[in-house]
């Protein structure tokens, strides 16, 4: 008897074991109601098969209730049909037929009315509803087993048998609901975990993509002083041989090729507890504004490393320098406007009297007056440079052939070079388009650049003046083979009052820059120590936009 009872319990709980394997694949979760209905139907048929003709009760009501409750209305309909079909062989028995009628007209409508409530209830509510249904439904298997109870038994013995049936059915139903809910809860938890993991991975990819596309150099360092991530811009700081080994290496080794120990020190100080530090980094001729900040965990706010963000501020610094240059030019303009007349008038009077004294003086003293007149002319020239530099006027331009302008100037330049013992080479391209130029200012530009080149060379120096024709522009180059200009001085060449000459005023190149800008051109300098310097002036052709 007991072995058959255990077999019935095993068959009744078989859908629960099958469900655990079914839920190993989360993609199947949406088909769980259909699976529970099918597995419970198989369990119910097996229970009927193993109880048919045997003198014991069966537990097919357990899979019937489980399959109906978890299979929904469609599942409950299929389970009802199977349950009725399993009793077709007993329709001749009036008592069984009456019980089937009670089942179809009483239990089934009651079951269908509770399915929706059951599926939306929590674990406690599902246990309560399922056990109530089991208590109502257990009457049917008990009555079906009535014919198999020994005749002549006492009411007490029959009652004990009924309680036994009720306890087993209730226990099987409660165990089934609990295990199913546990399995479904685990499956939902795993699905939620996978969803959160997928969202985290997607967010990580978005952040990584943002870091790669950002105009900032980004670098992360963990608590163990190891670099965990560098974006593309940060990798460009390093030599090619070091880029593959950068991630995972100690940050002092990664920063070593940069040649800036202060940057590594700033990262170390942040890792030791400082909140945020700022640093200016010069690298490869570029200027970077660097922020080193503590990197904290989002949940508990605990520090787990440092993050370095660097912005290329080279252009911003260049604009600031240009603004400073414009402010200095404005200052020069104000000075020139205020003192020009005050100086020129006394100088004109002085020059007149010096000339008069020169005419009346002895011959051996005239050389002194000649020196005074030269210095007065030099002072007047400086005042003229002030005026040319300060005036932000609109110059009158006309169509001009640059080659003709240079050929007109060459006798003057050759004469100046001969006095110094130097030579001049003129290399003109085959043809050059006409340009809109102010002839007077361009002549002044060429003379200034040529004399600067001559002053930078010794008495055997060679000055080369050449022109190049491009589709949108014409370039004028003035090259000397002098001593060259140190790199640290190149960026200051065009600033007013900045000079590399002992007796220079620092206004010549500033005046050249002013002339070039009034002609919508650009001027650049290329110089190597011991080899010489080249000044290249680019003019846009009429109707073209070179920049």
Automatic annotation (TrEMBL):
Record's keyword terms, sorted: ATP-binding, Kinase, Membrane, Nucleotide-binding, Phosphoprotein, Transferase, Transmembrane, Transmembrane helix, Two-component regulatory system
Lineage: Bacteria, Bacillati, Bacillota, Bacilli, Bacillales
UniProt name for this protein: histidine kinase
Known EC number: 2.7.13.3
Molecular function via GO: ATP binding; phosphorelay sensor kinase activity
Transmembrane segments: 5-23, 29-49, 61-85, 91-115, 155-180
Domain Histidine kinase, chain residue ranges per copy: 338-539
Highest taxon of source: Bacteria
Reactions listed under catalytic activity: ATP + protein L-histidine = ADP + protein N-phospho-L-histidine
Gene3D superfamilies to which the protein is assigned, alphabetical: 1.10.287.130, Histidine kinase-like ATPase, C-terminal domain, PAS domain
């Amino acid at each position: 008897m007991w072995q058959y009872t255990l077999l019935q319990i095993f068959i009744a709980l078989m859908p629960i074991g099958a469900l655990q394997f079914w839920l190993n694949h989360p993609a199947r979760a949406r088909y769980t109601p259909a699976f529970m209905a099918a597995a419970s139907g198989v369990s119910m048929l097996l229970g009927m098969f193993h109880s048919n003709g045997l003198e014991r009760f069966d537990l097919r009501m357990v899979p019937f209730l489980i399959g109906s409750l978890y299979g929904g209305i469609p599942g409950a309909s299929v389970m009802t049909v199977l349950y009725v079909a399993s009793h077709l062989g007993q329709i001749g028995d009036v008592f069984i037929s009456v019980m089937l009628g009670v089942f179809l007209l009483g239990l089934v409508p009651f079951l269908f009315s509770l399915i929706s409530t059951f599926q939306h209830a929590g674990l406690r509510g599902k246990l309560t509803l399922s056990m109530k249904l089991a208590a109502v439904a257990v009457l049917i298997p008990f009555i079906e087993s009535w014919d198999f109870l020994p005749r002549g038994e006492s009411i007490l013995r029959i009652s004990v048998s009924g309680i036994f049936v009720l306890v087993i059915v209730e226990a099987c139903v409660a165990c089934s609901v609990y295990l199913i809910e546990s399995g479904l809860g685990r499956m939902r938890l795993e699905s939620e975990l996978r969803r959160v993991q997928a969202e985290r991975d997607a967010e990580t990819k978005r952040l990584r993509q943002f870091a790669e596309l950002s105009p900032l150099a980004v670098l992360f360092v963990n608590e163990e002083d190891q670099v965990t991530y560098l974006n593309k811009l940060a990798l460009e700081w390093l030599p090619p041989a070091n880029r593959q080994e950068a991630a995972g290496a100690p940050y002092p080794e990664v920063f070593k090729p940069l040649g800036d120990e202060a940057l590594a020190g700033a990262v170390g100080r942040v890792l030791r507890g400082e909140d945020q530090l700022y640093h200016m980094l010069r690298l490869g001729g570029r200027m970077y504004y660097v922020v080193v900040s503590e990197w904290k965990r989002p949940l508990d706010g605990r520090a787990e490393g440092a993050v370095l963000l660097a912005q290329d501020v080279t252009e911003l610094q260049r604009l600031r320098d240009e603004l400073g240059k414009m402010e200095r030019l404005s200052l020069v303009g104000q000075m020139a406007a205020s003192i020009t007349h005050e100086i020129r008038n006394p100088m004109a009077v002085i020059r007149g009297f010096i000339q008069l004294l020169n005419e009346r003086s002895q011959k051996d003293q005239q050389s002194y007056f000649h020196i005074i007149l030269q210095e007065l002319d030099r002072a007047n020239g400086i005042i003229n440079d002030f005026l040319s530099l300060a005036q932000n006027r609109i110059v009158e331009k006309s169509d001009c052939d640059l080659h003709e302008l240079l050929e007109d100037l060459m006798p003057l330049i050759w004469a100046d070079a001969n006095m110094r013992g130097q030579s001049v080479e003129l290399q003109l391209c085959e043809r050059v388009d006409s340009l809109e130029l102010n002839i007077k200012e361009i002549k002044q530009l060429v003379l200034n650049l040529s004399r600067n080149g001559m002053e930078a060379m010794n008495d055997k120096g060679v000055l080369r003046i050449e022109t190049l024709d491009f589709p949108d522009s014409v370039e004028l180059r003035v090259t000397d083979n002098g001593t060259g200009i140190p790199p640290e001085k190149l960026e200051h060449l065009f600033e007013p009052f900045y000079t590399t000459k002992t007796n220079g005023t620092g206004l010549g190149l500033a005046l050249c820059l002013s002339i070039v800008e009034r002609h919508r051109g650009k001027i650049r300098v290329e110089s190597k120590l011991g080899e010489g310097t080249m000044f290249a002036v680019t003019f846009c052709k009429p109707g073209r936009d070179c920049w």
